[in-house]
Amino acid sequence: MTGKFRLKRIAVGSVALIIVTIMVCVLTNPTPLAATVSEGDCVEIQVSDNGWHTNFYLPASAFPADHPFRTDYPGANWFVVGWGDEGFYIKGPSILRGFDAIIPPSPTVVHLIALDRPPEDYFSDRRLPYSLSSEGLDQLVSEIDASLKMTRNGELKVVSEGHYPGASRFYRSRFSYHAFHTCNQWTAGVLRKAGAPINAPASMLSGSLMMQLENTHKACPVPQKPDTIEP
């Protein structure tokens, strides 16, 4: 094989990879399912980033009183919720586990941390506020629920204790992890369906997701005070 022919094959392969990537980012981007924020209908959540992985910081009140998260941790005021490859998430990062997670579809888990105080009191991860409508928050919770695998009795399947024994658990997820559905793409997909105007497939890295959130976030509108008429 001549050098010129080899270069041509590399160029054609690179172009094909770019085209496939663009098609994936465009064609598999979830449709927003919730209304956008408006004055009088706006709630703020937080998304955290530890440099490679993103989580949701959510008040416990975002979940119904009978939700399994709240019945498992009745004293919690806040939840940290994340999703990812089972081996990588539970045992910790390594090059081998990273390749194992990305190349073949792998089993996944939802990691829940229950807190009595706001997460920023415990964690120093970068965090960004993000505004959703009340419908958007409900949709976000529904998407988290849709990621969880239930038993026949409607109970969550506990895989193991979480990274904070006594305050966290890994629950079995019904989804698979692979190169086109990473932990950050899961976070982005949940946000997208909750009304965030972001591209979920293009959010493979935590930095790309956080950049989109920075560019699209709008603070909750400040309610306007009615004009007063001087006597």
Low-confidence parts lasting 5 or more residues at pLDDT below 50?
Answer: 5-27, 94-99
Query: What's the helical proportion of residues?
Result: 25-40%
Q: Please give the count of helices.
A: 7
The outline comes out as globular
Radius of gyration: 20 Å
What distance lies between the first and last C-alpha atoms, to the nearest angstrom? 92 Å
* SSE succession: HEEHEHHEEHEEHH
How much β-strand is present in the residues?
A: 15-25%
What is the number of strand segments? 7
The strands making up the biggest β-sheet line up spatially as: 5-1-2-3-4-7-6
- Averaging pLDDT over every residue, what do you get? 84
Number of domains: 1
Sketch the major β-sheet: 7 strands, antiparallel
**Structural class of the helix and strand makeup?**
alpha+beta
Write a short abstract of this structure.
With 231 residues, the chain is an alpha+beta fold. The protein has one domain.
